[in-house]
Every structure is written in C-alpha cells, then in structure tokens.
Amino acid sequence: MSIPKTILISGDFADWTLEGLRDLVNRAETAGVETIVLPDGIAPAKGGEGWPDALILIGWLAAQTSRIRLAGMVSSLGHQPYNLARRLASLDLLSRGRAGWLVATDGADDAYAAFSGKVRLEGVDQEQREREFATVVKGLWQSWDTDALVFDKEGAQFFRPEAMHTLDHKGEHFSVRGPLNVMRSPRGTPDLLEEADIADAVTVDNRQAALAILGE
Amino acid sequence: MSRQMKLGAFLMPTGHHIAAWRHPKAAADAGIDVDHMVRLAQTAERGLFDLVFFEDAAGVREARVELAAQTSRSIGFEPISLLAALAARTSHVGLVATASTSYNEPYALARAFATLDLVSGGRAGWNLVTSASEIEAANFGAQGLRAHRDRYARADEFAKIVGALWSPQTRAGTIGHEGENFVVGQGLGIPASPQGSPVMVQAGASDVGRDLAARTADVVFVAAQTLETAKAFYDDVKARAERAGRNPDHIKILPGMSPVVADSREEAQAKFDELQALIPDAVGLALLASYLATDALNGLPLDGPMPDLKASEGMQSRQQLVIDQSRREGLSIRQVAQHFAGARGHWRLVGTAKDVADELEAWFTGGACDGFNVMPAYFPGELDSFVERVIPELQRRGLFRTAYEGTTLRGNLGLGLPA
Predict the structure, then answer these.
(1) All domains of chain B, ordered by start, with CATH?
(2) What is the mean pLDDT of chain B?
C-alpha cells in the first residue's frame, strides 16, 4: 500500500482524542505523509459534538513535529481577516514554514448561528465576502520583506522602515490598514490551499482507520 | 500553611524596558525565535511561577514607521497560537493570553481558549481587554473608537457569552443568547479540561473595568506605584467582589512589578542606567504620548514641565497615574518619558534580591496584593536573575511555594473548580 501525500482528518473528535491525534500525526510524519488537514467543525446549530479549534491544535502539534505540513480547514465566517492572517502567520513562524489554510465552506449554517450571523452577516453575499477575506489575508502576509529585520543594536535600527508595508485595503466588507504585526517566516507565507490541492487526500474518520492507511 | 504569593511572569520577546532589545545580552531576534520563547516559559516553570502572561495588540502599535523601526515592539508571535506551542513544551505553568472583546467573536474566542485549555491539560487563561487604540481600529474597518462605556457594554455581553460557552452545564447544549451585539445559538461541544474552564483575567482599572473584574475575573492585573494606591485598589475590588456575591479570596490581585536585580545595589543601578541610556529620546516620548493617548506633547521642550492634560477616551486610569506622578515629583517631560519607558507605568524595583524581596513582602503582608505580575526589564537575563536570586529568597521566607500544588492553573492559584 502506498502512503498518501495528504490525510484529511474527519469524524467525531471523541473517536480521536488529543493523544490519538498527536500519535497519528507523529506516525504520519515518520511514514512520509506530506500534509495533515484538520477539520474545524464547530458544534452543529442544534447543539452536540464539535471539534477543538484547528489552528490552536496546529500550534500544539507543530511543537511536537518537525517536517509535516499542518493545515486547518477553517471557515472565514467567524473571523476577521486581520486576526486570521495573523494567527496563520504566527503558526507558520513557529512551525518553521509548515502552516496552511484550507478555506472551509461547508457548515456555513452552523457557523452563521455561532458567530452572530443575525447581527453581522444578514444580507451579506457570503461568497463575495469570502473572496475579499482571502484577498486581505494574502495582502497582509506581504507586510514585511524577507530581509526587513536588521537588529542593529548600535545604530538603534530594529527593522528597515522601507521594508514594512501597509495594505490600505478598502473594500465592500473589510477595511484593513495593516501591516501585520507578525514577521513572515523564512519560506515566505503560509500555504493557502484550495480543494484542488487536496483532491488526492485520503479521508479518515478515526485513529484505527488512519493507522490502517499507514500500514500499521 | 501561611498564605503564599501568586506570581505571574509577564513575557515579551525582548523585555519590558523599551530599549531592552539593544542591551548587549538581550536576544534581539526573540520575536521570530520560538525556541527563545520556549526557554522563557521553561525558566518561569523552573521558578514555579503560577503563570506566564502575554499582552496583545492587533496591529503595529507605533504608526510612525521611523519610530517603530527603533524598537522591537512591531513584531512578535500571536499569543494564543504561541501558547499552544508552549503547552507542548511545559507541564505545570499557567498559560495566559490577552485578547480583545472589541475585535473578536465570543464563540471563536471561547473556542480558541477552550482548545488551549484542553491541549495544556487545564492551564489556560484569558486576559479580557477592550481595545482603545485607533491603530487597532484601522485594521477592523471601524470608524473611530466607541465611547468608553460602549466598549465595556460589549465586553460585558461578550464575557457573559464566553462564561456560558465554558460552563460545564451549557458547554454541550445550547446557549440561546440574543443580545445587542451578539447572537449565539449553540455550545462549544468540545470536552472540558481538568480545570473545568479557563481562568478569567482582567486589567482594566477604571470604574466600569473594576465592576466587570469584580463580577467575572479570577485574576486581576493592576499598575500601581505605591503600597497605598495598590491597597486602595485591592480593598475596593475585593469589596466589589463581595457585593457581587463572590468569595473575595477567589479573585487574585497581582500588581505589575518590573525588577532589575544584582548582587549589589550599585550593580543593579548600573544595569538599570545602562538600559536607560539606550532609550532614544523620540522613542521614550512616543511611548509616553501613546499611553496618554495625546498629541499634546508634540513640540513642547523636553526639559519643560508636563502640560495640563484632559482625560481621553483611551486609557483613563493609567493616564491619571502618569499625570499624578509627574505633578507629585515635579518632573520634566523627558524625565517622565524615561521614567515610564522603563516599566510603562508599572512599579519598578532596582536592587539586590533581598531589597526586592523586602518590598514584595511589605506589599504582600501589608494587604496590598495577592502576589505580583513580574515584568523583567530584558530577556532572558532579568527573568533568570529573578528565578535564581529572588525566588529562593521568597521561599526562605515562606512567602512562595517550593513545589507546584497541582497541574492546573486553577489548582495552583487556589481557585477551586468553576461553579
């Protein structure tokens, strides 16, 4: 059996547990899997089981791995582009260039109910909002040139002013000046994945299924 | 056992002194080096600190880029994601991050902290702040700032929702909240950590801020420069908590304290002077102006007195502190700027381990606090100094633990499980 490039974690969190998830990610890294995609399923609108926050799980898993790419399938509905761009940039820095974002579109009704949709999103074209959201996030990731930081203690110059860039985005849904207050990672920016990028991903619903895929 | 201090380690990448990054022994690249941040958290854990704490701003704090470029404050890790990484590399120390109610959604924030609580085995805490800066507002499409009371009305509703989302009773069910700012239907539906729910921290010292803290906070950070002002704050917040029907022992009040410690007073003073000499005039002045939320200092002679300032919409309580102090001591603008640049309006102690322990003991036994939020002038040096010199001195006096009581933040703070 060949090892898949990408494993998409799915199913109920109760069937995984934190330890099980960490164990799987470690084994997948050893086996040569390139990317793990974590779900960010919020609890359904009528109550019930949800998943922990994918991006926080990534921070925790990143500290316990060294090569595997960790992506979160996160909806933009409950977030502001500045906050999400910042958290992803931070994850990319602390994982040394292994963080990714797959824009989630399923579960939109649940997200609407959880994130004050009635207050914030009534009458909003959500696809259009999402496109603008991604544009802002990508723009914010260009806030700092790779060689911006000079750390010149004698000359009191921490960074080169011309290497920091404001975004000054003014759109239909968002108005964001920037810059981001997180330095980019040496590899550039986090990965912004699309459905096509994970077309060959193998979806697993629990740890046993995942171990079987890895031939264990 | 007699009452013991609770200690927070207020971590920043390079240090609390504005010129910390320029110090020869400071790690200037700390804001991009996760290993450095891990070492700081592990040092705090070695020192048996209750918690490590990170402040936050959703923006580059200094809008004038030439000034920003002379400090290290423009970049750093986003605190909650950083703490998730630190959770994997520590085992006992509490992990507290600041996040604003002004530019987040309660469901998203409650879920992020509940996840941090889960991966850390019950060590997470949230420092609730409302945002006062135009710089942050510009990153969230907001047209100017809401009035102080409005910010707190939103914060109040926000805190109620987060409390319900973290509550063991409503965690997996429905919340059914419909308020002025938020509509939230369902619970988080994720498991609770061993401490039940993350610890609630607050730092607002204004009247509405104190009320919110008295009703909802487990830990309160405060800036105070004298034992008397600290005690007045302490008594007031404890009384408010009691009026709100809470056990006043379940709200821990920790004033900020910025230490510079050495084997002799002369050495400690020399270390501090070395840092002060590294502050560029323009940077010190800008820091003061931003704390006062004013541009009234522009163009005034640096050797002249502080102008008479009107209270702004921004940081009401801290502003008063700065103005009071400059009047009391007849300081020039440069002196005030330098004075506050060192500890940003917090209390500063420069001396031997015994000197520092004496002062901390006086405040603690004098009924002014339950412990301290320690703000080292530069990292890693002054955190190491505190752990190696001051902690053992406090332990000898029976004022601080010699081993962690438990593995959760609530357990170590002596808060018990949430209701």
Answers:
(1) 6-265+344-413 (3.20.20.30), 268-341 (no CATH)
(2) 90
